[in-house]
Design a protein that fits this description.
Layout (H helix, E strand, L loop, with lengths): L2 H13 L3 H12 L5 H18 L2 H9 L15 E5 L3 E5 L5 E4 L1 H17 L3 E4 L10 H11 L7 E3 L5 H13 L5 E7 L3 H10 L3 E7 L16 H23 L2
Parallel strand pairs: 1-4, 1-6, 4-5, 6-7
Antiparallel strand pairs: 2-3
Helix pairs in contact: 2-3, 4-9, 5-6, 7-8
Length: 251
Amino acid sequence: MTAYWFITNLLAAFLLPPLSLILLMAWGLRLRKRRPGLARTLLGGGLAGLWLLSTPLIATSLLGSLMPPPRALNATQADAIVVLGGGRYKDALEYGGRDTLNHFSLERVRYGAHLARTLHKPVLVTGGAPEGADISEGALMRQAMQEEFRVAVRWAETASRNTLENATLSAPLLRAEGIKRIYLVSHAWHLARAVPEFERQGFTVIPAGIGQKARNELEFFDFVPNAKALLNSYLATHEWIGLFWYRIRHL
């Protein structure tokens, strides 16, 4: 595990739900005797925040605020497909204790393979090993795409630690072969942060998002908290914080 990975993930844990809201309520409990009014405000705010972020209505709205408009893809728009890593499943016992792709990465690889077969474009996969693992996400993605989906991978970037480095370290591999236009494959809620980073490297980027859904009519259960909705709110909050941080870095 690298120090960079540990520090960034520790900071994220304190900023993101549910820990940020739990800490807010813990602060309220600590102040309940000395500052009862403030304590009630903190406890109520933390509880309300946890409730709202756990409802499908709020979670879906937060994710939707990040997603680009759906776009039909065709073979004339770009010259290569770039697939971003989304994490790993560590020490998978069913695979002999080896690391493998988590569901986010696997969904991206699957869609990237589909596009490669449909559009007949070369593929680049990108992802390092920020946790200090022996094998990078990029290598795992290449292995899965070639062995499980039977799609060749032309380039594998294996040193990046985050989305910004996905772009900066992939760019030389693509430029070396004259690639200027790319389809960028990731989850739709991640593209708001990923697309600008590749555009800063001089590429024309065609978003190829996974998980875009049409809005449905409101239902009773859209207001009922559940764990999946809280996860989606976590993902959306993570992306908004990442967008803010990247904008600061590029000032």
